Amino acid sequence: MIRSNLSKPLIFFSILSISLLFSPLCLAIGLPAFTENQALPTLAPMLERSMPAVVNISTSTNVEGRENPLLQDPYFRQFFNIPKQSRQKNSLGSGVIIDSDKGYVLTNNHVIDKADKIMVTLTDGRQLNADLVGTDPEADVAIIRIPASNLTQLPIADSSQLRVGDFVVAIGNPFGLGQTVTSGIVSALGRSGLGIEGYEDFIQTDASINPGNSGGALVNLRGEFIGMNTAILAPSGGNVGIGFAIPANMVMTIKESLIKHGEVRRGLLGVTTQDLTPELVKAFNLANIQGAAISRIENNSPAEKAGLALGDIVVSANGKPIKNSHELRNIIGLLQIGDKVDIEYYRGEDKKETTAVIGKQERPQQAGEKLHSRLQGTVLGNTQRDQVEGIVIEKINTASYAWKIGLRPGDVIVSANQYRVHNLAELKEVVDPKSGLLLNVQRGQESFLVMLN
User: Fold this and answer.
1) Options 2.30.42.10, 2.30.42.60, 3.40.190.170, 3.40.50.12280; which CATH number does 365-452 get?
2) Among 140, 206, 312, 411, which one carries the catalytic annotation?
3) Is 140 a catalytic residue?
4) Would you tell me which CATH number, out of the four given (3.40.50.1980, 2.60.130.10, 3.30.360.10, 2.40.10.120), belongs to the domain 43-264?
5) Got the DSSP string for 24-56?
6) Rounded distance, CA 352 to CA 308, Å?
7) What is the reported pLDDT for 195?
């Protein structure tokens, strides 16, 4: 075996490189630099304080199994008295204790969505049943609650102070392995338009995030919560160093509404906007500015009352610069009914200011029992999800007949009694309160039939 006489200089160079690399890290967290006879830099003290506040979440959901298409015919089942086949679906994720006194745990909506049972495991081995407090599917945020006894919570940082290049640490439960820590930096801020969530303002990081990390904590080197790990960009199915976290400021704003109302009661500005393009800038004879162009205004909306008009270019909302339509939607989406929003905009070459009061979103709703006795305990509303129009089950009583036969919040009714229905008005026309009701229901990418006798 041939050994190179350059091995020692190379080893020395490697040690020097590592020392130089960790020097800023050591200064940032107050640890000693890497020198002979001194302690190595470590994140262990910070993690020992932070890790007890991050929990593992497991859920179980009863779902209908795949069957022969003939067995999906409710009349066939009824005639031969064939029971429904179901299976249990389990999933894993993470959560963050944000209020140790009241037992509130933050996680992603997709971690606990439609779960029949939610189990939280703490770092000390305790396993606790959790109750759902509230969810916001649009922003993918949920709050659950566990018994408040000897819990540790994470301090919350101001995520608006983050900078690209800041060191961060991700804590979670990837692949169900148990609590795992990875580190990296903030790769980018304000990521939006990815199509992952309805409201996007992501922190991008190269800290390794994998399935199961969802709902876990992204912390700074002081152990403060700066974001909730939510998604990864994985073209090949594995981690490629592009992960996304919902900023702490956005999460905490949503959290208050979830605890108070169980949902986010988003208001309405009443505008449709689009991103500025070079062609639009030229057409409106504008300077080369960034903003969101108003392409539609609803009649009698807060925007119209505030004096906004078609073609106005919104460049700021509540003091925050607007670069595109996604940023404006995020800001409006975090406001509640009755909140004021200060808007700066261009009309031609003139820069103007106005204040709008966020209004209530008017969306038709119907108590299910008014349509059919077997829909008692449900609240129905019009919806359009993934380009599928129908009637969404917005709320459902867990003691109702509709729940017992398998209907769940978020299910979309797309046909009734073999008639395609797009909205509540069409559903009313085909429902006979005195006879059975056959529903075709869309749940995510799957559809199934339900017979209400």
Assistant:
1) 2.30.42.10
2) 140
3) yes
4) 2.40.10.120
5) HHHHHHTPPPS-TTSPPP-SHHHHHHHGGGEEE
6) 10
7) 66
Is 214 an active-site residue?
yes
Per-residue confidence band for 168, with pLDDT thresholds at 50, 70 and 90: very high
Inform me whether the pLDDT recorded for 425 exceeds 50.
Answer: yes
Instruction: Catalytic residue, from 50, 214, 325, 415: name it.
Output: 214
Which has the minimum average pLDDT: 104-113, 134-143, 257-266? 257-266
Which pLDDT band holds residue 3 (cuts at 50, 70, 90)? very low
Residue 19 has pLDDT above 60, yes or no: no
Which residue in the list 110, 113, 325, 326 is annotated as catalytic? Answer: 110
Note if the pTM is more than 0.85.
no
The CA–CA distances, whole Å, from 420 to 50, 75, 76, 382, 427 equal: 52, 19, 22, 14, 9
Active site residue 110: yes
In terms of Cβ atoms closer than 10 Å to its own Cβ (0-12, 13-18, 19+), residue 72 is middle
Q: How many beta carbons lie within 10 A of that of residue 420, not counting itself?
A: 12
Residue 362 pLDDT class (50, 70, 90 cuts): low
CATH of domain 267-360: 2.30.42.10
- The Cα–Cα gap between 323 and 315 comes to 7
Pairing of strands 267-268, 359-360: antiparallel
